[in-house]
Amino acid sequence: MASRLDSQTVAATAVQEEAADVPSRLERAEPWLFIAPSLILLLAVGLYPVVYTGYMSLHNWTLGMGAPTFTGFDNFANAITSEAFRASVGRTLLLLVITLPVELVLGLAIALALNVQENRVLRTILQVALVVPIAITPAVVGLLVQLLFDNQLGVINHFLAQVGLANVDWLGDPTMAYVTVCIAQIWQWTPFVALVLSASLATVPGEIEEAALLETERWWPRFRKVQLPFLWPGITAALVFQTAFVMKQFGMIYAIQKGGPGSATQTAMLQIERTAFRGFDIGLASAQSILMLIISIVLAQIYIKAFYSEAE
After folding, report:
1. How far apart (Å, rounded) are the C-alpha atoms in residues 138 and 269?
2. For residues 62 and 123, which has the higher predicted lDDT (pLDDT)?
3. Could you give the CA distance from residue 281 to residue 289 in angstroms, rounded to a whole number?
4. What is the pLDDT of residue 9?
5. Cα–chain-centroid distance for residue 236?
6. pTM greater than 0.70
7. Where are the alpha helices (DSSP H) in the chain?
8. Which of 29, 69, 193, 244 sits CB 3.0–4.6 Å from 238 for a disulfide?
């Protein structure tokens, strides 16, 4: 009789423990339920295209012609040995080398100027104004560049004529066309760098800045010892994002000159577009895209190791 009661007690206790464990399991699953919609969307629009591109890079497929055939790494070998693709990658990296330091210096200067602005209303207005170039779509930026730098009717050449300078063939000369693309890239994305660095400066504790101000009135020691350590994460983020923006730049350059004159402004994304939708070689274009992704990841890792080591 006693053993029967003991078994019933054990069974009841087990039921109670199981019932108590149900809410705990729900509580553990609750965060995942909240992020599930975003996670599913990210997988659908982010991860799946990358995986599919990787799959197609291992296959030979002419758009609209039969089924893909597996070719291994032949597309990567063809991409690496392609003179046109290597030249377009070189133009892309040159665009990065020219614009990234300028954007970083100008963005830092703007962020520091906003940081010393004591009028909160004016600072908010300036920060909102910085969003405007970022919010403009790349195609519209390209059209604006055409209007500003047109050889005959452009505003820039009009101002040059007013000060007695000759017109510049901004869009017809290969070198000047590339310079024009650099100017447009810097104009659109410097505000992004400024906002990122401004957010980093906002994390500097006020009491530390006040103590540094009491210790010395010179700007450089206070910047190097107090503000710069808090800026390294923002600088790293700005470098990573700007590298990604340059690597995938397409709409603005296409709207300006479609990669011209000739191939002077034909960056990697324009070359990939021509390979995929003019040459209809989807496998080769996919391999070229994967190579650009690898270059972006390698550069991002370099930034993180270099600048986070500075932060440490």
Report:
1. 14
2. 62
3. 12
4. 55
5. 12
6. yes
7. 2-42, 48-57, 74-81, 83-115, 120-135, 138-149, 155-162, 174-201, 206-215, 219-222, 228-247, 251-257, 268-277, 282-311
8. 193
**10 Å Cβ neighbour count for 110?**
20
Largest CA distance in the chain: 113
Q: Residue 8: pLDDT above 80?
A: no
Beta bridge partners of 281: 62
Please give the single-letter amino acid code of residue 279: G
Of 218, 289, 203, 245, the C-alpha closest to 96 is 245
Query: What is the residue type of 227?
Result: Q
pLDDT tens-digit map of 237-262: 999 999 999 999 999 999 998 888 98
SS3 278: coil
pLDDT tens digits along 40-86? 888 888 788 889 999 999 999 987 788 899 999 999 999 999 999 99
CB of 170 within 8 A of CB of 234? Answer: no
